Amino acid sequence: MFGKRSPGSAPNATAPPPAPKAPANSGGDNAATPPKKTAPANRSAAPSRPAMAMGKIEQFNALKMRLHRKLIDKLDLSRMVGEEDVLRQQVKELVTQLADEENTLLNYNERQRLVSEVLDETFGLGPLEVLLTDPAISDILVNGPKQVYVEKGGKLTLTEIQFRDNAHLMHVIDKIVSGVGRRCDETCPLVDARLKDGSRVNAVIPPLAIDGASMSIRRFGADPLTWDDYVNFKSCTPEIRDFLQACVEGHLNIIVVGGTGSGKTTLLNNLSSFIPETERIVTIEDAAELQLRQPHVVRLETRPANIEGKGKIAIRDLLINSLRMRPDRIVVGECRGPETLDMLQAMNTGHDGSLTTLHANSTRDCVSRVETMVMMAGFDLPVRAIRQQFASAVNVIISAQRLTGGPRKIVSITEVTGMEGEIVTMQDIFQFEQVGIDEKGRAMGQFVATGIRPSFLERIKACGANIDPALFNRQVLMKDDALE
Ligand SMILES: Nc1ncnc2c1ncn2[C@@H]1O[C@H](COP(=O)(O)OP(=O)(O)OP(=O)(O)O)[C@@H](O)[C@H]1O
Ligand SMILES: [Mg+2]
After folding, report:
1. Which of 41, 196, 433, 460 has the fewest beta carbons under 10 Å from its own?
2. Residues 268 and 359 in one domain
3. Is residue 355 within 8 Å of 248, Cβ to Cβ?
4. Which residues surround ligand 1 with Cβ inside 6 Å?
5. Which residues on adjacent β-strands are paired with residue 281?
6. Domain boundary among 190, 218, 246
7. What number of CA atoms fall less than 13 Å from residue 484's CA on the CB side?
8. Domain boundary residue, one of 159, 189, 218
9. Would you state the pLDDT for residue 350?
10. In angstroms, what is the span from residue 262 Cα to ligand 1's centroid?
11. pTM for the whole thing?
12. Ligand 2 centroid from CA 215, angstroms
């Protein structure tokens, strides 16, 4: 099996990749990834590229490096203008010609592969290109140059993809972050960025990443999941989708909660799609991930401090500013710090219908997370006051979860009803009840209406929602296939 690639080079590069900035790497670990090294035999083949015998790999890579250098020497950069497709075609012809001049014993498939890998290095993100073309991959996790995991269908697997060395990986990271006007170096070793297709990128480089540069790419692709996908994947039922639509149209304040990678942002994106086109939406994010289709959207993104430590604009600054932008809706990608209190206040002061997400393991946990975030931000508020703010601001909490074996589901939709004494009171309207694990090791269960009718039903009906009250009778709405 084969996976190594040649040194990287930007489309406009005039020299080979920069010298290594970080110590040589032997593959590392990352909090979001599974155990350390797995035997190469377990690596899954790069999609849609023919495999190659082990013995040829070194020879192939050496040839690729040679071709790439020759290509850079031959390219007349001053004449490299025009559409990328045209340039790509020209460079492809040149690489093919250079490959012909080499006296190699490569077969047709290997030659094709050689040309396409040199093109990936020149125009794209090198070894990652082949992963980026696979729409089924939801996460790409690079732990140093020699270890690349992907998540596909909810499962993490080690791929055979490798970078040549740490310098090669650093070069690709530089290419990504410089594309969004950011940088990643010793003075700024943590960076958030985004790919052209909207995928979110986080990079951490040495010395913070001990075993070599680490990069996590969250893919949404050009085609993010839609409500139809949610229903087809049994992530929710059509009734739940319609109910959520009524909640959004009815201007309820909604928080999506869940753990890492549980599907919070995807759900927020889909909830936002229910906001009527007539309303002015302001979105606020750390790295823009939301892809709203409405015509009237103002998208704001935070900015890290510059090299002198100045100029940082946080979510909170943007949120406070957005209140002066006459928003009908404020959508905050994630509340994770002092902005949480501002968000609650905005929800309480006439910005109904605001939406956000929050990292919490359950609906209940959400309240204590909010308390902690508000207190850690240094606001000197008694817990009861924070809870009161929460109870009067938030109408609905939706909990997203990635269940055993990979399926992602909306596991509960909960109404916040108020306070009783010191406690925020809530009631579950819909739930996913897990009953076991199917033969593929995936969680299986059923969506149920709990038998509780939300107290805001009249309010959302007044906004035009056409909901049959019988929907809230205790009943099973949908079962997973394995239970049918
Ligand atoms: N219901 C779903 N079914 C299948 N895949 C899903 C579902 N929801 C989200 N995904 C996929 O799961 C991945 C993680 O989703 P998402 O980024 O929304 O999670 P998140 O909770 O916001 O993660 P993070 O905590 O890292 O911000 C994405 O690739 C997304 O396309
Ligand atoms: Mg997210």
Report:
1. 41
2. yes
3. yes
4. 138, 218-220, 225, 230, 233, 235, 258, 260-266, 408
5. 297, 329
6. 218
7. 6
8. 218
9. 83
10. 5
11. 0.77
12. 16
